[in-house]
Amino acid sequence: MNATITETSKNKFGQYFTPKVVANFMIEMADISVNSSILEPSCGEGIFLKLLHDKGFDNLMAFEIDEELAQDFSNVRYESFVSAKISEKFDLIIGNPPYIRWKNLEDDLKKELSSNPIWNKYFNSLCDYLYIFVLKSIELLNENGQLIFICPEYWMNTTHSISLRNYMVANGFFEAIYHLNETPIFEKVTVSIMIFKFIKSKSKTEKIKVSKFYANQKLTFETLQKLKFQVELKDAEYIEVTQFKTNERWLLQSDNVREELRVLENNCKIKNGKSFLNLFCNEKQEFHTIGEFCDIGNGLVSGLDKAFQVNGHVLTENEKKATLNVVKAKDLKPFFAENITKYIFIEEGLVETTFIEEYPNFHSHFKKHKEDLGNRYQYNRKINYWEWVFLRNFNLFNNQDKRIFVPCKERISNKDYFRFALVDKGIFPTQDVTAIFKKPHVKESIEYFLAYLNNPIVFDWLKCNGIVKGNIVEFSEKPISSIPFRVIDWANEKEVALHENITNATKKYLETKKLDELNKINDFFNLLFNLNK
Predict the structure, then answer these.
(1) Which CATH number fits domain 7-252: 3.40.50.20, 2.60.40.10, 3.40.50.150, 3.10.20.310?
(2) Closest to 185 measured CA to CA, from 347, 411, 23
């Protein structure tokens, strides 16, 4: 993932420059002697080469596909590492490999991969350019050789990277992983970044030393040293993780959390049906999900929120009827909503003279915002200034059922819960809220869904498997749909009884807000999850 000189070359080769402080930190992670053989597969401008040379390491080889880069070094081979014939083995392979999704690869790179025996043996068109750099590097290591890379972390738990993960488990172990989350390392790169040290070995240590850093700030030498020695640091977390296994997602969570998530997914598995992990086509669903049992929709878009809030205006009878009851994201709590806000809502189709005549107070109010309202995105149609710009999912929200609201985005760096709240019929969400409705045929109660979604085990699952950008979890339709769901076996008396207990305790908690009822809910879920252990 080395650097770019132009936007064009970045698009073609997936290049980003490694900051000097990070490159130096990675070199210090290596346990090597001055005579060790070292390879950098994609050296970019040569920051690793320069630092290694300055530290007295001269047994170096490097590859770079872009001939404009690293011109000051004599040991760079200007050819593709992917296709290069390399007979040597190395004690250390270090660097910042490129990462590009197959669909974004240039045709010449796709052609190169399509004829590559390593790619054809382990990978396919759902895979990332990064994968072959990792796997080929391991093949080129000596026994007990070290691989130290900085790269995105998404490949650790996606289905189409499982062949890479299985290869790594079979050929060695991780010594250390630094999960840097939303820390800004590369300009305009928003993916979560990690640094790992992998040892090629037939024997393994039991645990991986994992350091996590959550702060949205540039890395300094001091910060990296504290992470290395696991010194107490704000926004840092240190854990030990048991070495990863084959045919599983790799989660950078404690063993307790990993076991908890295994129990959850086992509870949600589809019964009486074949389930398998398919590496080379779309993933087959292995467990029941919320999307099977609920309709989900993102909220209505006004385009200028402040202009549509009633805010205590004196209203005519006509105007009182032309309002919506809305719950905003800021007013959501776990299980319930605190406030309702009235919004102006006038059905489409009025001409302006009729609007002024029928809604005089609204007209006066909108006049203050008319210019800004006219500058809203128009969705390829003419939108009157008193109208909402996008009534997405309006028919869904207009039904006569209770619904669950959740903020579209939730920061989790300072909390260990999400805010799924039950609201009554006739309450609408705006664009900062996503709504969840139980499908008509579903027997489980809406209170059961509410309690389930607020359960700590679901929080942990989403923290590991949801759409997480930095420390923000996204709750649009797709990520909510993918949450594993614990269905009730209606032929099992114990499960039916626990469903009723959870439903009743949830109703009582909504009435009383007493912590005892919340504890009961969690206890009932623990009993339910343990039925299938």
Answers:
(1) 3.40.50.150
(2) 23
